[in-house]
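User: quick one, fold this
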Amino acid sequence: MWSPLRRRVDGEPADGRPRPSERLRIPQPLIKRRLPSGRGATEQPNVTSDGDTALTPAFWVVLVATGLAAGLIGAGLMYLLFSVEHLAFGYSSGDLESGARHASDLRRLASLLIGGIVAGVGWYLLRRYTAGQKSEIDDAIWNGDGRLSFRRSAGTALLSEIVIGMGASLGREAGPKLMGGVSASFLSSWAHLSVGQRRLLVACGGGAGLAAVYNVPLAGALFTAEVMVGSLALPVVLPALACSGIATFVAWIYLPDHATYLDIPAYRFSAPLLVGALLAGPAIGVISAGYIRLIGWVAYYRITGRRVLFAPVVAFGILGLIGFAYPQLFGNGKDMAHDAFVGADSFSLLLALFILKPLVTAMCLESGASGGLFTPTLSTGAALGGAFGVAWNLLWPGSSSGAYAMVGAAAMLGAAMQAPLASLALVLELTHSGFQIMVPMLAATVIATAVARYIDGYSIYSARLPPQRGGPPRRPGAVSGIASSAGTDGPDTA
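Assistant:
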């Protein structure tokens, strides 16, 4: 029988009743009454409040519309990309690498040169007649109010997919990511949502665009939360998951619903693989820091003005000449990564691709072209990991070089994006494999990301931000992860 004379627990009032929590949830739940324990639901930190981004009914309506738009536009841009690839290299089925191999050297070079002309003239005119309009989705979220120019963004997305289809070494996700964000920007302004809501919606739209074109709904949501917003709080994760899921489902009207990388073996865990991952992690972190610096340098010194009319022709022409020996370098690097994942390449080829892919990608960016970096980074990490695996197997056999390629891809992505969770989810969803080697992948990714963060701290996205126009640098807020003007990033190492 309960006795009123029981000893009082420290912190309880004298009458023995539990003390209510000092925190209140905003907005209030439908059920106001607490559990018999008296403890508040907000004892769990991720349910305390929506912060400055209220998840109102209007917000959810716009979010659904954003997901639909991101999926439809993503599918449309991929149709454009694949159509240009087939036309440029003269093939009707199969992958870009096979099509490029079967095309003549003259056709391959001509495709890159014509792509350079299209890029030079297109971006020169676009930037001239849309001067001052915003089309940098990351900058609009982190340092702006989330508003993006439809005209400039649409032109950038279309040109990006066309030149990638013609062989430029850039990532195909930049266009869908940007247009997903533009859709959210337009819809949230039309619905008169707050600035905080608009920034979160733009971030969700960007992640949904990536999710749609690669069929990676979970990874797209984690990309939104970890990379674009910088918070895994519930008010961020819920809309991110919903938007990426809707966009991925809608994109199935044209894009396949299977893994992007097919026929990847189910590699098994082994002691050599784990030890190799632990050894490779620090090296990948150091290499990633250098790679990020290279991207930041070419982004800042990117050719502008009338020189853009000619620079892409030169850069793409050089890529075309290198492609005589290494056609794997054409496009975003998807086929290059696939070959590494299945362990099909030799040490010398993997090493050459690991060195050349970042260089030709940086060359394309510096010429004035715009495009993504996700797949080029993934393929670079896969080639590096595969080359390491071939060499490591000479000392301690036990795992295919393809397993090391998957470890290298995850680690390189995690370090370069400064987003280990998103990178691991991307590799798993892209391949529908890797679950049995999760521990080595996780070990290499954590170590590489920590090393890159310790050395420098930039990512391939923050390194590409345009020059700041006065005032101290701003960093994302802590509640919703969206931009805040309070404080700086600490000592600037640039």
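User: anything notable?
Assistant: The two ends are 69 Å apart (CA to CA).
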